[in-house]
Design goal:
This is TerD family protein. The protein is mainly beta. The protein is built from three helices and 28 strands. It folds into two domains: 165 residues, Lipoxygenase-1 (Sandwich); 197 residues, sav2460 like domains (Lipoxygenase-1). It is globular, with a radius of gyration of 24 Å.
Length: 415
């Protein structure tokens, strides 16, 4: 589509993909959406992005990044049938993290039917220079129907400037004013007491941490994320029809619709107790008593829903020695090949931490995702992203135990 043109779109669930070509010196980019009435948001809740991943109406959800073959995509799921009647426009934006869009090659936005995968509209953005944010497109109502418009409006003030223009209150670092020089002032008459200020909603924080091979770890303590509940989310997409190895010869096997990935955690407490959190054997854990880790449930859909989630109670951080987050394939595939996953750790306080998994090139059924270590005065998150290949007759759980020296005894289990 050329800039400024429009096209009708169905009022079904649509997947909006922001995509570009990765490479050395290419900054990261993030997709976001703003739901507008009269050109402005009604409140900060009408902003959907990596730190606020779902609109209260359920009409827009941030799905996260996938990286495959040198191409990166960041996705939003938009269900136009669920957009509230008052909303007139859904803005679809992109922001650069660590550079400008002049350094981002082959930037595009693509709208697909989420169920069928067919392309409904596509706009390739060209000619960017110093812009750090773009409104690439928008959905808008016209005579009871929805249309998509290719916009291509650039901003030099990043995501914060773009969001502020549409009425979002952004939490940004404030400059500290210099202390005034002491002086003797004449007495002034007493003033009546000032009434307390009216409570205001907390501003939106745009902070985040992305772990990479070059920068694989982060201190939760320095990020202010050492209390409250920390949510760990695993989300995935299947890129191809075939995946896995039927044998060491590398023959592909069909990927079944009942693909089931299990998010799990090995834990070691400060008092020496060890265990596993997993849906296998209904070992869901507990949030308010040892081990202070709880698996929310067993999701068999991945990118179609909210993925797999577990919660860690950081109010009891002194009880932890180390926690290893890992994922296994329970059924539906024989390898992680073509399963492109994103891991996000969202502390109740502090910036979220995310990373993507590299492509799997070995017949692996278990992947170590992240290791959280209590050093005594700090909590460190280490990106592992390590695919492991179990020996014949050895379970994925036992394989990850051996790799990290957990030293537990294992027995067969079932869901």
């Amino acid at each position: 589509m050329p800039k400024g043109s429009n096209a009708p779109v169905p009022t079904t669930a649509l997947r909006v993909e922001l995509g570009w070509r990765s490479g050395p010196g290419v900054p990261d980019a993030d997709a976001s959406a703003l739901l507008l009435v009269g050109g402005k948001v009604r409140s900060d809740a009408d902003f959907v992005f990596y730190n606020q991943s779902e609109h209260t109406s359920g009409a827009v959800r941030y799905e996260g990044k996938q990286n495959a073959g040198g191409r990166v995509t960041d996705s939003l799921l938009v269900d136009l049938a669920r957009v509230e009647p008052a909303i007139e426009t859904v803005i679809l934006a992109a922001s650069a993290d660590g550079g400008s869009f002049g350094q981002v090659p082959d930037l595009y936005i693509e709208v697909k039917d989420a169920a069928q995968g067919t392309v409904v509209a596509r706009f390739d953005s060209t000619g960017a220079t110093v812009e750090t944010a773009f409104v690439l497109g928008e959905f808008y109502r016209r005579q009871g129907a929805w249309k998509f418009r290719a916009v291509g409006q650039g901003y030099g003030s990043g995501l914060g400037g773009l969001a502020t223009d549409y009425g979002i209150t952004v939490d940004e670092p404030q400059q500290t004013a210099p202390a005034p020089t002491p002086s003797v002032a004449p007495p002034v008459p007493a003033m009546p007491p000032v009434p307390p200020p009216v409570p205001q909603a907390s501003p939106v924080s745009l902070s985040k941490v992305t772990l990479t091979k070059a920068s694989p770890s982060v201190s939760l303590t320095k990020q202010g994320g050492t209390s409250g509940a920390m949510r760990v989310n695993l989300n995935w997409q299947v890129r191809k029809q075939f995946s896995g190895w039927a044998s060491k010869l590398g023959r592909p096997v069909a990927m079944h619709n009942d693909l089931d990935l299990d998010l799990c955690a090995l834990y070691e407490l400060a008092d020496g107790r060890k265990g596993v959190i997993q849906s296998l054997g209904n070992a869901y854990g507990a949030l308010h008593q040892p081990p202070y880790i709880h698996l929310d449930g067993d999701d068999r859909t991945g990118a179609v829903a909210s993925g797999e989630n577990l919660t860690i109670n950081l109010d009891h951080k002194q009880a932890f020695r180390r926690i290893l987050i890992f994922v296994t394939i329970y059924e539906g595939a024989r390898s992680f090949a073509d399963l492109h996953a994103t891991v996000t750790l969202t502390p109740q306080h502090g910036a979220p931490v995310d990373f993507s998994l590299d492509e799997c090139t070995v017949p692996s059924t278990v992947c170590a995702l992240a290791l959280i270590t209590n050093t005594g005065d700090d909590l460190i998150v280490q990106r592992e992203a390590r695919y492991l290949v179990p020996d014949r007759g050895v379970s994925p759980q036992r394989t990850v135990d051996y790799a990290y020296g957990w030293g537990m005894n294992w027995t067969p289990g079932r869901k």
